Amino acid sequence: MTRKKYTKKTAKSIHKNRRKNYFFRRKILLVILIIALIGTGLYLKQSISYYYALYFNKSSHKKLQNSEKETLRIQKILSDNLDKTYGFDISHYQNKEDISWDSLSIGNKTIPLEFVVMRATMGNRSADKHFEEFWQQAQKHNLIRGAYHFYRADEDPIIQANNFLANVKLESGDLPPILDIEKIPKRKTNKKLIEDLKVWCKIVEETYGEKPIIYTYYHYYKDFLKGEFDDYPLWLANYNDVPTPSPYDEWDFWQFTENGIVYGINTKVDLDVYNGGVWSLKSLTLD
Q1: φ, ψ at 37 (rounded to 5°)
Q2: Per-residue 3-state assignment (H helix, E strand, C coil) for the chain
Q3: Which end of the chain is more exposed for a tag (fewer CB within 10 A), N or C?
Q4: Centroid of chain to Cα 45
Q5: How many CA atoms lie within 13 A of 175 on its CB side?
Q6: Model confidence pLDDT, tens digit, residues 3-35
């Protein structure tokens, strides 16, 4: 094939266009690289700040401390779950004056607490004396809120459900209702307990249109509840030195310590991690 010939002017124009395209592609590649670096930096920001504070900028709570074993266990859970979302839960065991709601954080002040779960009611007729105050403060400070009912295993599930509904008015952006079950009945069979728990859940679910979150200890879930509430969001408490709250079950929330030290709270609290990012947690809230 005969090689195509170009005039000097045409060849110069072609060379100019090739140079222009070459530099344009380099600029595009540079922009993509810069965006990738910024994205990586934002993604790793939490990890970088956490490890920097852990080794070079350690903070200690003025009033509270844990044993070395518990401190190391909590640090390991935090470092293994820096991509997840943290919160805490409270009840009347915490005094109102112990909490400074403006800035609550853990992990040497590098990990903000994004949600708070609080006890609202207990059994047939009891209500937590601090619930209303805590509920309003959480909303005022833009925390995702959750309310739970402490279920008394030998009492009536219908009355207990109505007790919760009478005292808790969930709004858009709040977590679904939470059922806390951790006691074994003395006057009922385990089969009857499961039936009653499902009655409570049905009443509350019909009111809010969302399945309640089931909270319990890992061994209680394994021994009594497993297989009965598989399609419900699961919140497990496990304070042992383990990588996850359950080696076999999917989980949504993990209460990993009852000795949580929070900057902004002058008493120890239960700490929780949600198994996902903030936007994932918001997608779980009520519409």
Answers
A1: -65, -40
A2: CCCCCCCHHHHHHHHHHHHHHHHHHHHHHHHHHHHHHHHHHHHHHHHHHHHHHHHHCCCCCCCCCCCHHHHHHHHHHHHHCCCCEEEEEECCCCCHHHECCCCCEECCCCEEEEEEEEEEEECCCEECCCHHHHHHHHHHCCCEEEEEEECCCCCCHHHHHHHHHHHCCCCCCCCCCEEECCCCCCCCCHHHHHHHHHHHHHHHHHHHCCCCEEEEEHHHHHHHHCCCCCCCCEEEECCCCCCCCCCCCCCCEEEEEEEECCECECCCEEEEEECCCHHHHHHHCCC
A3: N
A4: 19
A5: 30
A6: 555 566 666 666 666 666 666 777 777 777 666
Give the pLDDT band of residue 61 (cuts 50, 70, 90). confident
Q: What is the pTM of this model?
A: 0.84
